[in-house]
Amino acid sequence: MQDLLVGLGMVLVIEGLLYALFPDSIRRVAEMARQIPDSTLRVGGVSALALGVLVVWLVRGAGG
Q: Where are the domains of the chain?
């Protein structure tokens, strides 16, 4: 549970940093995302999820 909270905290740190440093770019990206079809966003989301699980699995040790 502690690892989950640390991971969520890191996500917030990175996201907050991006918003603080590049607010105009974040707005443009959000507007562009509105124009992308739902199916494309889902594929991207599932791909990011799979990549994240793979990274955690490799870092934490495969099966151990």
A: 2-60
